[in-house]
Amino acid sequence: xxxxxxxxxxxxxxxxxxxxxxxxxxxxxxxxxxxxxxxxxxxxxxxxxxxxxxxxxxxxxxxxxxxxxxxxxxxxxxxxxxxxxxxxxxxxxxxxxxxxxxxxxxxxxxxxxxxxxxxxxxxxxxxxxxxxxxxxxxxxxxxxxxxxxxxxxxxxxxxxxxxxxxxxxxxxxxxxxxxxxxxxxxxxxxxxxxxxxxxxxxxxxxxxxxxxxxxxxxxxxxxxxxxxxxxxxxxxxxxxxxxxxxxxxxxxxxxxxxxxxxxxxxxxxxxxxxxxxxxxxxxxxxxxxxxxxxxxxxxxxxxxxxxxxxxxxxxxxxxxxxxxxxxxxxxxxxxxxxxxxxxxxxxxxxxxxxxxxxxxxxxxxxxxxxxxxxxxxxxxxxxxxxxxxxxxxxxxxxxxxxxxxxxxxxxxxxxxxxxxxxxxxxxxxxxxxxxxxxxxxxxxxxxxxxxxxxxxxxxxxxxxxxxxxxxxxxxxxxxxxxxxxxxxxxxxxxxxxxxxxxxxxxxxxxxxxxxxxxxxxxxxxxxxxxxxxxxxxxxxxxxxxxxxxxxxxxxxxxxxxxxxxxxxxxxxxxxxxxxxxxxxxxxxxxxxxxxxxxxxxxxxxxxxxxxxxxxxxxxxxxxxxxxxxxxxxxxxxxxxxxxxxxxxxxxxxxxxxxxxxxxxxxxxxxxxxxxxxxxxxxxxxxxxxxxxxxxxxxxxxxxxxxxxxxxxxxxxxxxxxxxxxxxxxxxxxxxxxxxxxxxxxxx
Length: 747
Ligand code: DGJ
Known about the structure:
The mean pLDDT is 97. Strands 7, 8, 9, 10, 12, 13, 15, 16, 20 and 21 form a 10-stranded antiparallel beta sheet that branches. An 8-stranded parallel beta barrel has the order 22-23-24-27-28-29-30-31, surrounded by 4 helices. Helix content is 19%, strand content 31%. Helix 6 runs parallel beside helix 7 and helix 9 runs parallel beside helix 10 (598-605). The chain has 3 domains: 2-327, Distorted Sandwich (Beta-galactosidase, Chain A, domain 5), CATH 2.70.98; 332-639, TIM Barrel (Alpha-Beta Barrel); 649-746, Golgi alpha-mannosidase II (Immunoglobulin-like). Helix 8 (544-547) links the parallel strand 28 (531-534) and strand 29. It is α+β, with helices and mostly antiparallel strands. It is globular. (2R,3S,4R,5S)-2-(hydroxymethyl)piperidine-3,4,5-triol is lined by residues 345, 375-376, 420, 487, 489, 535, 537-538, 554, 557.
């Protein structure tokens, strides 16, 4: 039995019990083992289908430390690469799941029962996921396994996309018996790779320096990244890892990407065992997780998106970009050109009134900006970060005409209006807290810590979600709001819910996320035309889970152009330019106090969803003219930037680290924009050229502002000689923090 599309196919070899999942360029093969569990055979470059893959199965070499089945001396799970392994019956590696049973046992035995192969891709219960728009875009394999002793079903889902080299996986447990089971681990994916000749790439950092690229060689033992922050996937580690071959570069070689569609506690880990097998697992962090599964209850894991590329890291990124831009992000804004915005945060912080905002709007209009976003400080008595979260009604002292009055005035100027919310949080100094002190996440009798003077609303409770929904709905139904910045600025401590029974306290972090997702679903369904941008102290929740609801994310609170090179470069490993909010801010920069030119600030921000974030009413005429030109430039090339193919050219993390470059090429290869950045001036640096990628070798290109034309093959092999650029170009390359932007089009 097999189902095929243009490129993807899923085959089942009935006689040998083997499944072969084929993407455009990869094969993924596993089988039903003789104990009726599932054993993994191969994941890598596409290979031919055949009637039997038995010769790919390995079960030696056994050592003196191996334990084996009593009734079959040759069988040990320690020696077998598995699909969704358990712990405690001959395999000593960390498992994909663990279930504590009423008698205290943790031993399970899920055996294959049946499977279905069908076109399309089912939705996940209450969780964000990639999707198809019609059945012919993907094929799904759903396997049903059963543990007879605990009468529990395990469903494993695999989807192969036709257009992308991507495979998604998730699992679901259903308790069909009478026992109360406790799920203490339920990962989304497990893959046992044949060898460990890999490097692990991950995106790590901190607030204001998110998603820096780190690469380490795999070693025997466990290497992992995770979040325990509860409310966020975190700025410290992104829910993504890649295994690359040591020789794999940006543009060549094999790489396997693992990305989790989830916004909370996660774990991504590689365990290299004593045979050199690498076990990759990824899912909800089992640490501090405990889910009670009563009769007829089920638990669905988030989705893991696995990408295969033999075209290097850049090849992997392009697959993620296209998949996440077109089949994870949703709604009318997915494909629409996004407005250029001005955000008031770094312009005014909490200190504004209607007049100030209208003045900013007036200048914005003059400059060609399209959307004015009023950030924090518009509600309750919020004049600093100590009060009013939860009181989502306008501060009449600052805004005598309310949000609707202000929004209408801004609309009358021919601009759109956007508003900031931080719906998940509450201040103690708020009416909401007076009314519902029990709505905070807290543990009775224990200290309550704060983060930025705020506390977390218990989103595991339906009544809290409903209340916050109605508060936001009141504002949105009353005022012409085109955009929402959905912020979240603290992590969970003293994790407890007054709404959950003792045996369900270990479920709170995940239930919180389910509550958040349900609220976002409700709001985005009622207001599909509002553009959502997610934010968590900048890029603390830049993950595929949030991208499902908000097609763009505020990439980092760090708006310094030089720091942004690293943040945006790292973010581009997984996330498309259409998802990265990038603003030109004031100097000295508010985070690192660096002074960079207006040109360089824009040259970095062009490679994202462009905007401004400083007091534009104070600009000189000269600066205004520069900004008008920047806006014209961005508008002219916006479609290309939002939808083109992105190529990383020079990395801030390797080589000299002093030069960074990237480019975006239109799908038809007729247009491209390249950004080149040099951080510090160097004395006599040697000859410099910028070699481009992704162009059509046979097309002849004109670079705006340069006299001659170039063939694509010249630009991709010889490149652009930077030293020989004359006039203004040369001037731009003088001093520190300099940049050049090349706009190319065919003749
Ligand atoms: C954190 C965000 O990242 C900022 O952009 C800004 O919205 C502040 N919160 C407002 O409090």
